[in-house]
Amino acid sequence: MNGSKLLRVLGALVVLVLLGIGGFIAYAWEREIPAAEPPAVSSIDPELVQRGATLAAVGNCNVCHTKEGGEVFAGGLALPTPFGTIYSTNITPDPETGIGRWSEEAFQRSMRSGVDREGRHLYPAFPFDHFTKVTDEDNRALYAYLMTRKPVKAEAQANDLPFPLNIRLAVAGWKLLFFREGVYQPDTAQSDEWNRGHYLADGLGHCGACHTPRNSLGAEKKDQLFAGGEAEGWTAYALNQNSPAPLPWDVDALTHYLANGWEEHHGVARGPMAPVTANMMSVPESDARAIATYVTSVMGEPTPERQARADKVRDQATRHPPGIQVQAAGGQTVPVAATSQDRGALIYAAACSSCHDAGRPVPYGGLPLALSTATYGPTPLNPINVILYGLPAPEGERGPIMPGFAGVLDDAQTADLLAYIRATFSDKPAWDDVQDLVRQVRSGKEHTDLQSLSSGGSAPANPTRRETSW
Amino acid sequence: MVALTVNGQSHQIEADPDTPLLYVLRDELHLHGAKYGCGLGQCGSCTVMVDGQAVFSCVTPVLLLEGREITTVEGLGTIESPGPMQQAFIEEQAAQCGYCIPGMMMRAQALLQRNPGASDEEIVAHMEPNLCRCGTHMRILAAIKRAGGLMQMAAGGSTTDTAKRAG
């Protein structure tokens, strides 16, 4: 190859690269939408605001956009990601530090395309890959709701991300690879209820954000819908045909769980799921039922073997010998004698049995562990969290509680207890490296979100629902 | 046979290893301060300290406690010479029926031992697991606050130091 030919080839390459960069920037470029005066609250239809409140509860907006002890929607919550820490933004209508100067058009675009008013790409910690499915009409209601909240002055904290992720243009590349913009398209072969559930679960509800595994770049693996993921130091169990729940979920059970935060034969929501169900309490039960209809369809009908096993487990766990009266709430129990001299069995007998074997129904009593998804789960992460730190009482509300045992159980004792529970109450193989995981959880390496252990204090409470439930 | 250290004294315990600590304290060691309330770790009347942390003795098997330091309300002082926590509860007259009080004192002790200057918010948050059905919470909180002051005074050596720090 002679010199001039080489130069020509190089020149062509440079032109191609420049065209590529230019094309990418043209693709990535988003215009700024002019700042608008905040709409007068009196001009906003209260009925629209009410619908927006319900939708915001489905979207769990308050959970990420509120920091501990902070004002609702004023942002500032640290969201640890494998790539760095992102801080949630202020979505109150404060004109300086919130979204007060966002027109409805700017809000619609942020939900549909993941771009802020100024035209900057938002990080996918804001789940625009789900919110893109939300209809214009629902976004209008959400906008009406947010613009009628109390404006709070709170500057968003700068994200702590390494180069090049701190360049927002990089998000455009991520979008090119993983993001498909577009409102939800109903499946005409399915019922209206199923479509409503799919729309809510895949859109605002963003269930897959935790329950679908993510790839190395943090995007959900679309071919592994609901195959199980993780969230803030908790396992988000699979919601597809691999659901580890010993009793397969059905529409009634899942509706009750979503709408109340507990279900008699599946137990209580905890970890990051607790604020989700707390929010769902203010949502019409028909929406919980729609979501349950869709999610159970993804799980599919249990195989006859699984159903037979489930029937056996339920029978064993809920049967009481003749003459034994189920204890009333508030009744006193004494622990049963241990069935063996294994250390795990002894700990179980004294520390766990008085609630979990008392026959007192959930949520007042503890779930028999043979019915607990945690007993059958792929990792012991969730039961470690619960054994060490318990279920703190939700602030200002009634809720299931459990004492934590971090103060008395050391790592080896916790591992023994878990090994006993796994071997006794499930038909699954033993977990590996339990003691090491206990140590990591205790040292904070697992970033367990203890705040979310107690069901979200900032969740809009619905006293009527609570009154009928407990 | 389990060896327990309670309020600085070693005991050889006859009870089975899965016996809750509360039963051993009350029935074998005749320390009747810790109370049986719910038996479920939900009311706090059985609270004692293990290695400085508040635990529910009704759901804590003695086999976990070999070689660990257990403190009950009897370990905080005597009738003749009450400790600062007990003194503060007497001065504030914080008990009505009194059933929850030993548990309240032990949970509060665990906090103040770490941080005698705990704020009101910290105290309220820390005391959340313990229930009082008489409704003397405000006096209990005042007593805990007072106990913190007494502990700081004792640690500071002189009242003027404490006054300066408080100021």
UniProtKB/TrEMBL annotation, chain A:
The UniProt entry, under Pfam families, shows:
Cytochrom_C
- Detail which positions bind heme c 2: 207, 210-211
Q: Where is this region: Disordered?
A: 442-470
* Source organism, top-level taxon: Bacteria
Q: Which Gene3D superfamilies match?
A: Cytochrome c-like domain
Q: Which Gene Ontology CC terms are recorded?
A: plasma membrane
Q: Which residues form the Cytochrome c domain?
A: 47-150, 339-425
Entry binding sites for heme c 3: 352, 355-356
Give cofactor(s), names only.
Answer: heme c
> What does this protein's record comment on cofactor binding?
Binds 3 heme c groups covalently per subunit.
TM helices/strands, residue ranges: 7-29
Per UniProt, heme c 1 binds at 61, 64-65
> What's a single GO MF annotation on this record?
iron ion binding
Q: Where in the cell is it found?
A: Cell membrane
Q: What is its main location?
A: membrane
Keyword DNA damage recorded: no
Keyword Glycosyltransferase part of the UniProt annotation:
no
- Sorted UniProt keywords: Cell membrane, Heme, Iron, Membrane, Metal-binding, Repeat, Signal, Transmembrane, Transmembrane helix
* Name by which UniProt lists this protein: Alcohol dehydrogenase
Q: What is the lineage of its organism?
A: Bacteria, Pseudomonadati, Pseudomonadota, Alphaproteobacteria, Hyphomicrobiales
UniProtKB/TrEMBL annotation, chain B:
What would you give as a GO molecular function for this chain, any one?
Answer: 2 iron, 2 sulfur cluster binding
Enumerate the spans annotated as 2Fe-2S ferredoxin-type domain: 1-76
Q: Which InterPro entries match?
A: 2Fe-2S-bd, 2Fe-2S-bd_dom_sf, 2Fe-2S_ferredoxin-like_sf, 2Fe-2S_ferredoxin-type, 2Fe2S_fd_BS, Beta-grasp_dom_sf, Diverse_Oxidoreductases
Q: Which Pfam families does the record match to this protein?
A: Fer2, Fer2_2
Keywords of this entry:
2Fe-2S, Iron, Iron-sulfur, Metal-binding, Oxidoreductase
Q: Which PANTHER family does the UniProt entry name for this protein?
A: BLR6046 PROTEIN, OXIDOREDUCTASE WITH IRON-SULFUR SUBUNIT
Instruction: State the name under which the record lists this protein.
Output: (2Fe-2S)-binding protein
Organism the protein comes from = Tianweitania populi
